[in-house]
Design goal:
The chain has a single domain, classed as Glutaredoxin. Helix content is about 45%, strand content about 25%. The chain is built from 3 helices and 6 strands; from the N terminus they run βββαβαββα. A hairpin with a 2-residue loop joins strand 5 and strand 6. It is globular. About 30% of the residues are buried.
Length: about 110
């Protein structure tokens, strides 16, 4: 499972955007990490990317405003801090589905 958080604060190429510009960005990162811990997903599955320097990539997946959260390449949320409990539930469902599909692939061989 691959989770990407696009944030507008912090290092953005040659610029540094102060945290006060987007308080939601820090809260989103904290919420995603909390949800991963609750769902039993290793934090190394989470990548934090600067939105401005990855704007083309972000726009291609529909992340028009930071903070944005992608799970396996699909937009989960943007512009708001995701609820950690709802995100954890979603991650657990995805993890269960991945486990079932990989188990099915083993059974067929």
């Amino acid at each position: 499972m691959k989770i990407v958080v696009y944030r507008i604060t912090g290092r953005q190429g040659p610029f540094t955007i102060p945290d006060w510009v987007c308080r939601e960005c820090d809260l989103t990162v904290a919420s995603v990490l909390k949800a991963c811990r609750a769902a039993g997903i290793p934090e190394n599955n989470v990548t934090i990317r600067p939105w401005l320097t990855h704007i083309g990539e972000a726009w291609r997946v529909g992340a028009r405003q930071a903070p944005a959260v992608l799970i396996n390449g699909e937009l989960f949320s943007q512009k708001v801090v995701p609820d950690a409990d709802k995100l954890a539930t979603h991650l657990q469902r995805l993890r269960a589905a991945e486990t079932e599909s990989s188990a099915g692939a083993v059974d067929e061989s």
